[in-house]
């Protein structure tokens, strides 16, 4: 075990910053301890698997403990993971709802895992399906094909490392079906696994250049690239265009009517280069759009 301490010089909401990395309550790569007193998360790194436990003292000091071959790499990136490289002070709110959310959530920042692969697989699993379907597939792939997480005896039970590219490539076709993953998403993930080492360059490029690199892969579009960028390099401008819900929520919150992607692009233009931060504030504001129809029902690809 290795340990690092870091005291930020800004307001920090650790669960809020790290929350987007969690893929549902049953995510095998994520656990919380007590009432959120500590967060455990696992990852792949260039040096191998890692498990990290994050907690905070009353004076604001963050205490990080790491296990596994990749622990040093993970802890070296602790400030970036918790948003030290983010620039929320440069954000200007142009709408009262966003301004109020920014005032009430001063600890909201974009953290950077510095790792594309761990974010890409679950993002592809979330393409064009409900969150329930995607989270179930992620759990099954991690539990059945990934390695147990390194750590101490007191570590929460059942934690797994995200599956590596090699492990993904070894999964037989029928096992993808059993995990509820259709052929289109399977092909996209397998294509990414074949060139996974090259995709990490997107973190160094950052911004639109990094997203363009990801979109060169078949099956990786604007939405998926944005979802990865928000997490891997903390991109505050990477809006998830193509989402089933976001344009409608942003439209009702900011202009009082539903929008499509083109309309949302226009409404968010004043927030460039921090458009996704504006979207995040809308999500954190507590605003709920009107409900007019039935909810989108999950499908079970295993029964098809």
From TrEMBL:
Highest taxon of source: Bacteria
Gene3D superfamilies: Hypothetical protein, domain 2
SUPFAM superfamilies: DNA-glycosylase (SSF48150)
Transmembrane domains' residue ranges: none
InterPro entries from the UniProt entry: Alkylbase_DNA_Glycosylase/TA (IPR051912), DNA_glycosylase (IPR011257)
Key words of the record: DNA damage, DNA repair
Keyword DNA repair: yes
Signal sequence, start to end: none
Keyword DNA repair applies: yes
Protein name: DNA-3-methyladenine glycosylase
């Amino acid at each position: 075990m290795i340990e690092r301490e870091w005291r930020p010089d800004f307001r920090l909401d650790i669960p809020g910053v790290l929350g987007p990395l969690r893929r549902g309550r049953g995510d095998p790569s994520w656990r919380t301890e007590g009432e959120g007193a500590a967060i455990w998360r696992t990852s792949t790194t260039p040096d191998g698997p890692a498990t990290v436990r994050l907690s905070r003292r009353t004076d604001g000091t963050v205490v990080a403990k790491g296990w596994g071959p990749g622990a040093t790499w993970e802890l070296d990136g602790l400030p970036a993971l918790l948003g030290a490289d983010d620039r929320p002070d440069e954000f200007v709110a142009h709408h009262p709802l966003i301004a109020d959310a920014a005032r009430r959530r001063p600890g909201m920042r974009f953290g950077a895992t510095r790792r594309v692969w761990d974010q890409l697989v679950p993002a592809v699993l979330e393409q064009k399906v409900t969150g329930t379907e995607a989270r179930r597939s992620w759990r099954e792939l991690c539990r059945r094909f990934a390695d147990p997480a390194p750590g101490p005896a007191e570590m929460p039970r059942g934690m797994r490392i995200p599956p590596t590219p090699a492990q993904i490539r070894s999964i037989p076709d029928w096992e993808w079906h059993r995990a509820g993953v259709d052929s289109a998403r399977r092909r996209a993930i397998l294509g990414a696994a074949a060139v996974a080492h090259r995709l990490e360059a997107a973190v160094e490029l950052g911004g639109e250049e990094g997203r363009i690199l990801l979109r060169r892969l078949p099956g990786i579009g604007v939405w998926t690239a944005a979802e990865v960028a928000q997490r891997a390099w903390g991109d505050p401008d990477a809006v998830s265009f193509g989402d089933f819900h976001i344009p409608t929520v942003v439209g009702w919150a900011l202009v009082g009517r539903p929008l499509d992607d083109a309309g949302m692009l226009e409404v968010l233009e004043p927030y460039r280069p921090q458009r996704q931060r504006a979207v995040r504030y809308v999500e954190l504001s507590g605003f709920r759009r009107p409900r007019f129809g039935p909810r989108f029902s999950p499908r079970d690809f295993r029964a098809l």
